[in-house]
Fold this sequence. Notes:
single chain, alpha/beta, Nucleotidyltransferase, domain 5, five-stranded mixed β-sheet
Amino acid sequence: MNILxxxxxxxxxxxxxxxDGRLVAAVExxxxxxxxxxxxxxxQAIRYCLKKAGLTLAEIDHVxxxxxxxxxxxxxxxxxxxMPSFAxxxxxxxxxxxxxxxxxxxxxxxxLHRIRAEFHRIEHHQAHLASSFYCSPFAQAALLSADGLGxxxxxxxxxxxxxxxxxxxxxxxxxxxxxxxxxxxxxxxFLKFGDEYKVMGLAAYGQTxxxxxxxxxxxxxxxxxxxxFKLGLEYFSHHRTGPEMSWAEADKTPRLGKLFSEGMERRLxxxxxxxxxxxxxxRNLAASLQARLEEVYLGMLRRFAERTRLKSxxxxxxxxxxxxxxxxxxxxxxxxxxxxxPAAGDGxxxxxxxxxxxxxVLGQPRSFVxxxxxxxPEYSHQEICRAxxxxxxxxxxxxxxxxxxxxxxxxxAAIIAEGKILGWFQGRAEWGPRALGNRSIVAxxxxxxxxxxxxxxxxxxxxxxxxxxxxxxEATGEYFAKSHPSPFMTLAYPVRPEKREKIPAxxxxxxxxxxxxxxxxxxxxxxxxISAFRDLTGVPVVLNTSFNDNEPIVCSPxxxxxxxxxxxxxxxxxxxxxxxxxxx
Length: 584
């Protein structure tokens, strides 16, 4: 039984294939069209998934789309009457969703007779919950999804047991943790779609001096099974004008209209312009924002755990990318195990929708656990060699060597230990927005100056943004206050005080690290690289950041070579090839 999941006409457009209950491939469209957070129809992602599965479109039995136009229909009609222009925009997107069979046929240059699949409309947040629970190792778990908005809801919670999910509650538009965070992100001058993670990093530099006011901006609602909250709507505009999201254009990064109102500026002062220097006031507001999100988010989880007495929780939605909050779950709640799959945001909807069809529509048992993130395209040694030959790197003075694995690890570790910057391109591309050792830039964590060097020379981004430590899983408890696995970089833990001087570069200003725990089973080559670095330096950690420069993470060897050439990376490992600049 072959199930195609499609997240289309929405941010982070993606596709996934589930065959007989097991994920075969999953990838976001941005990796191909090079448009960050690309929306539109994920034609190239679908082509890749079908190719990887060895299937034609005619062999797909079910197509799952994470959009249900009938969910909360009454509330949608109410707001449509209040916001006609917003309603017209949403209607256009809905028409595109209804045309997905035709878009499939057009993409594959065929007609509707080639598509014999049954189509399923899956509610947005149910797909989020499924993307985490059905990929987790837990037989039973509490489930929570929180984001900006999807099918006119922002939050949903329930319980997963075996192959079924029981939805217990939801919070509808206009109240939203995601829109709360996005609105203040905009107010702080970070206006691009997806900039919330920047503010999470900025928060560590501030004090929570405005926390009391943020209690008025985001209010806990009592008497709603413990999971209710409301926005102080006088601080926001989306309930009057609509969120003004533009999702449908494949060739443009999605845009999010203004979310905060004049009321927020009256209470907090004038909003920061994007080009205005960051002041301590802005850092303090970021800290207050993060603290209030944590209070409400962790409070919901704590009450949920106390009520259900469950020890495991699965998280999804954009808020589940808040690794700082996630890292505090073990101390702030009774939960003992946490699972967040690597594409917890809207990209993961394609996986969740496909698994809902497999388990809840077809009634099939579970047989799959997502214990690694490598579900994207891979390239053969011959394809890599052709890309290198075509680039003319050797003619430009670079030295290209083909090495056996042990020698590659030894030389690569030595390059990192010398304080040089290494592009690391191996195997299948990662699923989700984090580079997890197959499309990574790797550097020495022992050098405090490395953060500034990477931000200035390679990433060309704000100086306050931190980098991640990738650590051998077996050494986690030695370097961090917690040892619970964090394979997908979705948890931040305090670095042990005595180890902070060992790994200053990926240790954030607040003493934490958004770590990736690396096992030999999940990624043998990356584990071998870190092991070689440990053997050389005594430190079982490397600094890891995504292989890109203000663009989607590289997918192909050609893209990796292009990024290497236009940045100041010192070396590039492409499969078995090690490329160094002349004189290195």
